Amino acid sequence: MTILPVRNEDGLQAARDIRRQVFVEEQGCDPDDEWDGHDETSRHVLGMVDDTPVATARWRTVPHGDEIVAKLERFAVLPGHRGEGHGTQLVEAVLDDARRAGFDTFLIHSQVRLEGWYAQLGFEPTGRRFEEAGLPHVEMLLQKRAAEQ
Description:
By secondary structure, the chain is α+β, with helices and mostly antiparallel strands. The protein has one domain: 3-Layer(aba) Sandwich (Aminopeptidase). It has helices at 9-26, 31-34, 86-100, 115-120; strands at 2-5, 43-49, 52-64, 67-77, 105-111, 124-132, 135-143. The protein is globular. The protein starts with a strand and ends in a 6-residue tail after the last strand.
């Protein structure tokens, strides 16, 4: 899979189409929750297989505690392309993009069922659990460790 930044309205529409299929149709999320008004201020990526969009994610800046962090969101891979490592590729690409933008603390609101997967990628639960878009979530952080600074 090749991961590209979304640079135009066609790319953003492709990302929205993937999110609609995964979150609204497959997972039953309320469209008002999915279309949360943050798309215009977020950085989006598309995962492409043979020039076809099959995955997407976005990130944006948010306050968290006393700092501004990169919040990674809306990771979605179409059903026919799951289990091929595309989700991990997406997370790594979004982390790399946010690091290039100067961030070293990364926040995710993970669906509880994916907590272990994000933990394998280095994210740690903060202990905060909540419902978002009708699904149980856990807040997780990935922070640059002192030895990496």
